[in-house]
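**Reference record**
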Amino acid sequence: MTGNKPIDAFKLLGFLFFLLTGCLHFIMLLVFANEIFNQNHPGIGYFIAVVVFLGFLHFLIALGLRLEKKWGFLCLKIYLGLSLLAFPIGTYFGIKISKFIKNYNIKEEFYKII
């Protein structure tokens, strides 16, 4: 921990959020595996690929934030930009988190730590 409360909170909450959402992607696959894999729908392979990709993306962002890597912060910024397209909830959270990053100079603090 750096002693800077906003950046410490940002790293911890970011890590926990992305770790938990990454886990939820794989839990969803496990819980609904029987229904998902027994369907003969032609798009089911794409669905599984997207769920696995998003799960790994969330784990990657969580790992990058936890290890305080520049690529973790970059992946988070790209994720936030893409979340703006997920109207209305993704847009709301994307804007809120982006404002938090800007208001507390998280980018400068994050790159200073590394």
